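Readers of this paper often ask what the protein records in our data store actually look like. Such a record has a labelled line for the sequence and another for the backbone structure tokens. The tokens are whole numbers drawn from a learned vocabulary of local backbone shapes. We quote a single record here, exactly as it is kept in our systems:
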Amino acid sequence: MTAELTRGQNHPLPRARLEIRVSAGTPIVAGATLGDESGRVHGVEWVAHPGTPALPGLEVSRQAAADHRLAVDLDAVPDAVHRVSVLLALPAGGTGPGRFGAVAAPFVAVTDLDGDEVASYTITGLEAESAVIALELYRRQGAWKVRAVGQGYTGGLAELLTDQNLPQAHQLARSIQEAVAGGLARSVPAPPARTADGNRPRQAATPAHGPDHGAAAPQGAPGPVPPASPYDAQGVSDPQTPGVPAQHGTQQPYPAAPGDSATAGQPSAPTGSGPIDYSHPRRRNAAPPPPPPTAPPAAPGQPARPVAGDATGWSMEERLYNQVWGMFEDLARTTAAYRSAVDFADSRMEKELDQVLSDPRSRIGGQGDAAREAARTRHTQLVSKAREALDRDVAQLAAEAEVVEPALPAAYARWDNPVWHAYRVPMEIPMALRLGDLHLPETDRIRIPLLVRLPLERGLWIDSGRSASRDGSFADSHEMRRLGLETAVAHAARLLAVYPAGEFTVHVIDPAGSGASALAPLVQTGVLAAPPALGAAGTADLLARLTQRVDLVQMALRGGAPDALPPGLDTSQQLLIVNDFPHGFDDRAVNQLRYLADEGPAVGVHLMMVADREESAGYGPLLDPLWRSLLRLTPVADDHLADPWVGHAWTYEPALVPPGGQVLQRVLTQVAAARRPWDR
């Protein structure tokens, strides 16, 4: 499975013998430098370039070309080498472009010798730069990793090599350009242009991988299958359990090694003065959709005005879904670039201050103070520039969110959206359902809807454990149980509201009857299939009936006779809300819950647990598979969800009904009225 890296992100390398494949829209020069533990390049003999294409464990191309393959054997590099930096540059003095902003974004992939991609990186955001450090392979605690750098230099190779403390930087840059000047006529032709879906064609021997990192694509979408959504359960993971398989076997983001981070060392700062392109191919796929709305013309020199539904899709609902997906990834990537730039500025300032302290001459007079002040000034300038880029991108996304939020259909909208006042029971199942909002600390004013695809492919766990609230105080266990069940009721009501009449059924287990107040909207409106199951006997009876339903449907499907189900069997989607687990559950009931969580979603039986994991510790590790099979949500704001690209810890806020609002009762009353003919 390929890791599609963003600027500053790292990924472990599974083997020592690798190829680095570079694809660009114009002939470029590819090379590499070898650095010690601090990243210093000690001399020209530590640089592989077309004039000196081979070094121990490293070989580069002898000419400028649009496609390159660099051979790397990490076991063969000298022990003093701790960093291999891959550099790209535009040939000087030719007729080609003089800056990367005038060509397609270079694509770099690390592959094994069979051509299978390990990690890839598309270098975006370049403008006036003519040289760039694309990747670096670095040794950390005896293991090798790859990091996406993307640090550009407007001064070309000379500035790049000077930044790596190479004394003969300008002479070496001239010799490299002279070595490739006579070979431009032998350049490989440019690869085919990007396809309509925004993907660059890979090498023929390289298996195609989508931009969703190998995650299972959503099913049921018309036309070409689009990338899997980060709002599906497989695209939102819990960083507290790294490496645990998520839905459909996808893996959560790799955790950093102790003492390591995705932005350790010298990641890059955003370069160039133009807007950084963080758009995802999801926004321009190859499906032939209806024409999207046309944005009104923008004022000269101003960015285009956002329009709700300007993503591609077969319907307005799908276009809005794709647009929200694009906003989610754009915000993740622009925040990753900002954090990487700040880390780069911090590490650079620390390096410069260390150099000042290590130089005895700086201790005499005011030279040391001047050098320290200059380092701090450069740090402030880098951070300010990064913040300006972040604020610019966030302003664009905020403007887009302002027009998208009011246009969302009921399934995607918040409970305070006016669309609920015109609610009617739908005739078709929507693509997805909103379970809350996500935001990041640097961009707190932007809320991205957390959407999950329908039908549900994973159960939900509403964590009622002790947790900090928004104002920093702690809610007691009784308050958390109440909030947890109210959150579950809001989610269940939304599921009932977006399904056609008779196609979704809700059951409740409340062994002690402690949730009567929170369950009142469901009970009083009559949308439940039966009153909440109470006590051990009621719990056992309901679990037995749902387990039997799963068995019957599985046997019918496996036998190829889906129409041979017993008369009167409810074939609608089923949701079981379990309150106050594990109170009132014996070992048999616990095993039935695990069975429903594992086997139920495939045949239309879904689980929603309201539980405190610590209270179930008495069952030991037997319940660990149950928790891992459910998507954890919280009744209060909590930063436990991670995106599949960068691994940001996103703060989740549940989709709750505004205090004192009557929208829930009105919607459920309409649902109950529409269900009555089906219940006869």
